[in-house]
Amino acid sequence: MKKATLAQMTDFDLRLLRVFKTVAEAGSFTAAESMLGITRSAISLHMGDLETRLGMRLCQRGRAGFALTDQGREVLRASETVLAAIEGFRSEVNQLHQALRGDLNIGLMNNLVTLPKVRITTALTQIHRQSQGGVRINISMSTPGEIERGVLDGRLHVGALPLINSLSGLEYTPLYDERSFLYCSRQHPLFAQAETVDVETLRQASAVAPSYRMSAEAAALHRDLDCAATATDREAIAFLILTGEYIGFLPDHVAAAWVGQGQMVALAPDRMQFSVTLGVATRKGRRQSLIVDRFLEALS
């Protein structure tokens, strides 16, 4: 495709970027139809216009399915940043009228919904009621690292994650502590001796370790185990524990349902446990936003 330079962004360009972002998130033209309220042929024309405007191929589409090109992934990230900036401007203007109108983009780790302390849920309830539905809440589930990057580049207004290593560009507010224990399933040989199992026996069992960042306390406990598998999140850890082949750490609120059903048990709970503080992160020096400020106030 012939190289081109983008001289000036127009409303039409922004409309095309929103179409592109929706298609990329949906994963296909067909899936994006109902989200955009336009036909596949119209979506195809818009995508073609955008590729012509940018002078690059953004995606592959055809019998092999839909896939972003390397340039397409970069354009998507840039699109998310610029659209978030526009939304930030709209929020500032609405703030002049003291009206809660606009988007609230939140990044969460998975499995926080089972926490007994529902401060995030309560804060979302207050925002929805105070705005009378005028705030569109967009929640994405991701890893702590991705959440921090999203808050730093402006795609996310707020992120909820474990407070382990502080980044200089973010401000952190603690919410509550989360306690994790070492679990096995009913099918595991150690299930019957959960209370009395010794450390040496635990070292001989296959364990699963998270591939995301851990606290020093958690990392030390995992070093004493035979970590034969890794998982990107807590749900994946639970899947491996439930095979009966692995032991692994889970927050007690995540494991509670399986423990209550007799499907999991904590191993040597007096020794094999650790805590981590969960909190919210916002970008330092962020533009003032009535929506974000009200959400943070509701959390506290």
From TrEMBL:
- CDD domains under this entry? PBP2_LTTR_substrate
Q: Which GO terms describe its molecular function?
A: DNA-binding transcription factor activity; transcription cis-regulatory region binding
Record keywords: Transcription included?
yes
PANTHER family (alphabetical): HTH-TYPE TRANSCRIPTIONAL ACTIVATOR BAUR (PTHR30126:SF98), HTH-TYPE TRANSCRIPTIONAL REGULATOR (PTHR30126)
Q: Where is the HTH lysR-type domain?
A: 12-69
What name does the UniProt record give this protein?
LuxR family transcriptional regulator
Mind giving the lineage of the organism this protein is from? Bacteria, Pseudomonadati, Pseudomonadota, Betaproteobacteria, Burkholderiales
Q: Sorted alphabetically, which PROSITE patterns does this protein's record hold? A: HTH_LYSR (PS50931)
Q: Which UniProt keywords apply?
A: DNA-binding, Transcription, Transcription regulation
User: In which family does this protein belong, per the annotation?
Assistant: Belongs to the LysR transcriptional regulatory family.
